[in-house]
Amino acid sequence: MKQIIPFVKDIDFNTKISEITSIALEHNLKLENNDSIVGTFDISGKYKINDVSVNEESFEKELNFDITLDDKYDKSKVIFDIDNFYYEIINDNILRVHIDVLANNLVYYREEKKEEIKQEETKEPYFEDISNDIKEEDLREDKKEDENMIMEESVLESRTEENKEAPEKEVREEENVKEERKGDFTASFIKTEEKYSTYKIHIIRENENIDTIKEKYGTTEEELSKYNNLDSVILGTKLIIPISNE
Questions:
Q1: Pairing relation of β-strands 196-203 and 19-27?
Q2: I need a surface site. Which of 32, 41, 121, 203 has the fewest CB within 10 A?
Q3: What pLDDT is stored for residue 187 in this prediction?
Q4: Parallel, antiparallel, or unpaired for β 3-12 and 94-104?
Q5: Interatomic CA distance for residues 24 and 48, integer angstroms
């Protein structure tokens, strides 16, 4: 733990002080009798007597320091240092110095507090018997809340089962649609089986179009449109080519 101890002292000069041109601080603080900080501050520097003067006067002052620390601290490992130092010219011949002494590594004595905590821990806990204060109406309310929770859980489980069955149902519907389309496609072949008995699959390649396909297989656009969607014929499209028996 850290503690700041402020120290303020006025220094009298025999001559006028116009300006402090330099200043330094040294200390020899120490702990005495395990409860007091004692020592001195040595302040030295230079100053001007007036504003127009080019000459500087030297000064050196020794200030005594003695302060007693509170008994609540364990001061066996305390370290002293200067936390802050500044000054001000009060009048023509008084310089006021402000010194903040830093006392580091202070520790609170906690023996009494620890003993109090141990006594509190050894006390037996007190429990108040309130079983007779519970009303039958409160028991009925608790039972009703439990039944409502069971009903909500049942609804959630049924919804979960529905969600699980939904994807399987969609797959089955999709398969049914495929079977229907397959039946339609087969039916279209049956209707034309008197005229055609062979069908080829042609994949559109580069530089090919409907006109080149018609010319290659000797068919018409009308015949091709019966088995293919000619509105979206692009590179890589597969076309069903009917081959006539005639």
A1: unpaired
A2: 121
A3: 46
A4: antiparallel
A5: 16
pLDDT of residue 81: 87
Match 């130092």 to its residue by tokens. 85
CA distance 142 to 176: 51
C-alpha to C-alpha distance for 125 and 182, rounded to whole angstroms: 80
Structure tokens at 128: 């108040």
- Strand segments, DSSP code E, in the chain are 3-12, 19-27, 30-32, 36-48, 57-68, 73-74, 79-91, 94-104, 107-108, 196-203, 238-244
Q: Is 80's pLDDT higher than 70?
A: yes
DSSP-assigned states of every residue in 80-128: EEEEEEEEEEEETTEEEEEEEEEEES-EE--HHHHHHHHHHHHSPP---
Which CA distances in Å does 45 have to 23, 56, 59, 68, 83? 4, 10, 6, 30, 20
What's the whole-number mean pLDDT along residues 41-68?
90
The residue among 226, 228, 202, 227 whose CA lies nearest residue 215 is 202
The pTM score is 0.44
| Spatial contact of 219 and 242, defined as CB atoms under 8 Å apart | yes
Q: Give the CA-trace dihedral at 81, 82, 83, 86, to 10 degrees.
A: 180
Q: What's the pLDDT score for residue 173?
A: 56
Q: Could you give the CA distance from residue 82 to residue 7 in angstroms, rounded to a whole number?
A: 11
